[in-house]
Amino acid sequence: MTVLSLTNLSKRFGSNHVLDGLELHIKKSEFVSILGPSGSGKSTLFHMIGGLLTPDEGTIALNEEKINGITGKISYMPQSPSLLPWRSILDNTLLGQELQGKTDESRAKEMLKVAGLGEYLNAYPHELSGGMKQRAAFIRALLSPQELMLLDEPFSALDELTRSDMQQWLLQIWEKHKPTILFVTHNIEEAILLSDRIVILSHRPAKIKEEVIVPFSRPRNEQLPLSEEFIHFRQKLHKLLQEENKQS
Amino acid sequence: MNTALKKGWRPILVLLLLFLLWEGIVRFIEAPSWLVPAPSLIFQEAYNGWSQFAPHLLSTTSLSLYGFAIGAAVGLAAAFCLHMLPFVRESVYPLLILSQNVPVIVLAPLLVIWFGFGILPKVIVITLVCFFPITVAALDGFKQTPADLKHYMKMAGATKQQLFWKLELPAALPGIFSGIKISATYSVMGAVISEWVGARMGVGVYMTLASSSFRSDRVFVAIFAIMILSLLFFLLIKLLEKLMVRWKWKEDKAK
Question: CB count, 10 Å around CB of B102?
């Protein structure tokens, strides 16, 4: 079953042609990553799916309902944790639900405990480390009632070790809850490790240059990036991306 | 509270030294008390004349509180309207600044002519003095809401109302409190000025009577009373701030 359908999506800002006839379909419980050269319109695409921008042409459909320019249809995790500093961690994770209506405190507590944040339910965000804050931000998105999660380079501000911890954590939690995720990153390894399918965007105006299915079975672990197949696959993607970067 | 005591002794010591210096100079040059009363004389007068002065002080205190509450409410309401309606903000904001350029001392008698000697013209004067710092601080606070938080809220589907109540208002709270602190001290000044122009009771009245009969010691008693009252208001708001913006206070402490 298709959750998100982007059909023939185009966007211009004046003479700047950002997206050109982009097509993308995401099935339920699929983890799709978008890789693209910087400035390839990834954030424009996210803003359109989030409803902050409307496409010039084409449709965005969520479960076959057209959502062009409608906000509140997706849950979102940004690059910075964006936790509200005056709310406790528990209240922060409830925010996504709160904006849509009902809150479920016991479920939030449960998930925070599983994520190792059980002792921090009543702590303020500034008392947490970068990785912990991102975990709370992810739980906030996961608890939101919307079916599709948009993750916008969520780990790019973290140091290498925390980042790889977070990737493992995300893999585990994804196995358990199987949310539908659209993930933006510019880290190839991260994209392969996490996703079912990787979409490579072309240089501006962006369209889909290539879609590849990640050939590694789940559950995956931290050993996978060390295998020969993984390295080959990574090189293949690297080449594809490089071709695009050269044009910019 | 302990830290307040630890740090508080320094300004108190300076104040004491100033009083001693003042006392010394007045005695040394043998200044007449109607010209410059010595601090000892002022304190004496404050003590002896307390029963006479207290009702005036009480009247001014309640007038200040009353005016301040209305001024703060008007200030917050104005900020809310201007923030929610950008078109109104653009057309009215310059006028707000102009409203602060009208000298209160000139305006007060006019208000008495229009509204009589009751409480209304006094409250209007205090409101005029009080609302502006709060409106400006709140508007700035709303505007300076961190962009990443705002972006998250919008992407997560917050409505304009939710954006305001859940993000912009709490984010602006520290700034709003700075404005309220300024307004709280202004309110006492506004009350005294409004009493000068026409009232039966109040520190302003007491002051006018004292200065017209060359009782400089009483004028100083009134001045000190105004200062202490302003300071008390300030501390009260500060306490309230600590309770309401606890997260900020904790965050700053952690740094």
Answer: 11
Q: What pLDDT is attached to residue B73?
A: 95
Residues 141-170 of A with CB under 8 A from B: 144, 146, 150
Rounded mean pLDDT of B199-220?
89
pLDDT tens, position by position, B183-202: 999 999 999 988 888 788 89
C-beta atoms of B149 and A82 within 8 A: yes
Instruction: Kindly indicate the confidence band of residue B123, based on its pLDDT and cuts at 50, 70 and 90.
Output: very high
> What is the three-class DSSP state of A161?
helix
Helix, strand, or coil (residue A9): strand
Statement to judge: residues A53 and A151 lie in one domain: yes
Q: How far apart are the first and last CA of chain A?
A: 36
Q: Report which of B186, B190, B184, B194 is spatially closest to residue B235, judged by C-alpha positions.
A: B184
pLDDT tens sequence across A111-150: 888 888 888 888 888 888 888 898 899 889 888 888 888 9
Interface of B with A (CB under 8 A): 148-149, 151-158, 162, 166-167, 170-171, 173, 245, 247-248, 250-251, 254
Do A85 and A203 belong to one domain?
A: no
Q: What is the Cα–Cα distance from B128 to B158, expressed in whole angstroms?
A: 35
* Nearest CA-CA distance, residue B157 and chain A, Å: 3
Residue numbers of the domain that contains A99: 79-145
